[in-house]
Amino acid sequence: MKNLGIIFLEGVYSNVKRILFASDRVTDMELRNKILNGEIVPTDKVAEVPCIGCSGCKNVCPTGAIEMVSLEEPVEVIEGIIKKEKPELNTLKCVHCYHCHDFCPLYALFGEAGTIHPNDVGDVNPDIKELLEKPVKISEDKIAYISKFLSDNAVIRKREDQNSK
Ligand code: SF4
Ligand code: SF4
Fold first, then answer.
1. pLDDT tens column, 91-143
2. Domain locations in the chain as residue ranges
3. How far is the CA of 101 from the centre of ligand 2 (A)?
4. pTM score of the predicted model
5. Which one of the ligands is nearest to 114 CA?
């Protein structure tokens, strides 16, 4: 067995090497400095403007990583749909299951990119008024399943109104 004193000295030596000469570092110095200087801006997880505030993402998240926060002023998205809250995603609790995106009604009902994404929501900027007037092309069973997660079912009700005309 290796002498304990030698193991200890080897440990001290490699730590001194890491501290003084930055050896064994996985992150390069330029990136480390940017992180330390606050120059790395986290990517947006929510596209706040087109989000309709339905809470579907929060209700479907298995880890409680999404919290709905009140808007200072409610926004009328379209007639009959008032947005009062927006989601905030806590990356520390996220397990990247993508349920939030996949159950977002913009994606699930209309096939457009959802307004929340665990990595980077990107540039999601549909014409929300036009989109919500579009017919939904998925089965009644699927609509019923998705609607269980939407706190505000106004999108679904609107569609039913359109069908009954
Ligand atoms: S991807 Fe993350 S935030 Fe979205 S539902 Fe899954 S755990 Fe929740
Ligand atoms: S499910 Fe989509 S539209 Fe609904 S609150 Fe979440 S991000 Fe916004």
1. 999 999 999 999 999 999 999 999 999 999 999 989 998 998 888 888 999 99
2. 4-36, 56-164
3. 8
4. 0.77
5. 2
Distance CA 152, CA 75 (A): 14
**C-alpha 43: how far from chain center:** 10
Q: How far is the CA of 97 from the centre of ligand 1 (A)?
A: 5
Task: Quote the ligand 2 centre to 104 CA distance (angstroms).
Answer: 5
CB of 99 closer than 6 angstroms to any ligand 1 atom = yes
SS3 label, residue 40: coil
65 lines ligand 1 (CB under 6 A): yes
- Beta bridge pairs of residue 69: 86
Q: Which residue minimizes the CA distance to atom 4 of ligand 2?
A: 54
Amino acid at 3: N
Torsion of CA 108, 110, 115, 117, to 10 degrees: 40
